[in-house]
UniProtKB/TrEMBL annotation:
Its EC number is 3.4.24.78. NCBIfam families: GPR. Belongs to the peptidase A25 family. Homotetramer. This is Germination protease.
């Protein structure tokens, strides 16, 4: 599959790692202005893609910044010990993206539609985050050492509220004046293998809905006036990509010549508006597990003085 097919189907890639893979596959060399670091752990591989200049930004279709991808197939397994280790890896990677004094306020934003399971990751994470900003004003006696003022918001989506998500967040930012926003959202993957097995962190913010062709106003430093770190997990992939992969494998197995199949796939998907995304049948469990991992990592970073055993005391 190449970039021309993705463009013809109006598919954008949420994962910087996938964008790099496709471009490298076409050119046979590293993208100019892109630097890559890789770390290996027992349960995960961590790849950091640095987009360093405007030329690389244009080629990659991603803003200049740092994109950290944690690939961990074990997330799909019922292995709580492994999940805890993935949360610790995520926490360590998150720490690398900011350095704020403990007294400064952080706003956690769970993007997505809580009524649609594949899009409910952000709200599920917010439910499990330790929010403490109110305690500083109303119950300071409940605070322990090593706790940061954290507030959280799940603003919903335009179809539910009638308000652009970015407008809601900007209004909250103007009132609460956080020093950092951490935004969590569901993503679309190029490969079905990456659904609920890959976590991406980016210090460039996020455009909700961009991966499924429903691009909304950006949530980034330019629009919010405060730095935004985005955490995303692929929960869907495009039916057009699955169809293209199946056709390519069939052609390869029969020794046929590669063909432009985008018109066939467009006609096939036309009754569905030309855009169909799919998700695994076990998405409920996958969302719960990934939400727990991400919330655990955020809690570790935001409140290093609190042990996981004490989280329940502060969760409501």
């Amino acid at each position: 599959m190449d970039s021309k097919f993705l463009q013809s189907m109006n598919i954008s890639l949420d994962l910087a790692l996938e964008a790099r893979e496709i471009i490298r596959g076409e050119t046979g060399q590293e993208v100019p202005g892109v630097r890559v670091d890789k770390e290996t752990y027992d349960y995960a591989t961590v790849t950091t893609v640095h987009i360093e200049d405007n030329n690389a930004q244009v080629i990659m279709g991603k803003p200049v910044g740092k994109y950290i991808t944690i690939e961990a197939p074990v997330i799909k397994e019922n292995n709580q010990q492994a999940h805890r280790e993935i949360a610790q890896i995520l926490a360590e990677q998150l720490k690398k993206l900011f350095n704020l004094p403990m007294e400064l306020n952080v706003l956690v934003v769970g993007l997505g539609n809580w009524n649609a399971t594949p899009d409910a990751l952000g709200p599920r994470v917010v439910e499990q985050c330790l929010v403490t900003r109110h305690l500083y004003n109303y119950a300071p006696q409940e605070l322990q050492g090593g706790m940061r003022p954290v507030s959280a918001l799940a603003p919903g989506v335009l179809g539910i509220t009638g308000i652009e998500t970015a407008e809601i967040i900007r209004g909250v930012v103007e009132k609460t004046r956080p020093s950092l926003i951490i935004a969590i959202d569901s993503l679309a993957a190029r490969s079905a293998d990456r659904i609920a097995t890959t976590i991406q962190l980016a210090d460039t913010g996020i455009n909700p809905g961009s991966g499924i062709g429903n691009k909304r106003a950006g949530i980034n430093q330019e629009t919010m006036g405060v730095r935004v770190i985005a955490i995303g997990v692929p929960t869907v992939t495009h039916a057009a990509i699955i169809a293209q992969d199946a056709i390519e494998k069939y052609i390869q197995s029969t020794g046929g010549e590669p063909k432009d199949t985008s018109t066939i796939i467009k006609n096939l998907l036309e009754p569905l508006g030309g855009n169909l995304t799919v998700t695994p049948k076990e998405i409920d469990t996958l969302i719960d597990d990934t939400a727990q991992i991400i919330a655990g990592a955020i809690n570790m970073v935001m409140h290093p003085g609190i042990s996981p055993e004490d989280y329940a005391y502060y969760l409501h």
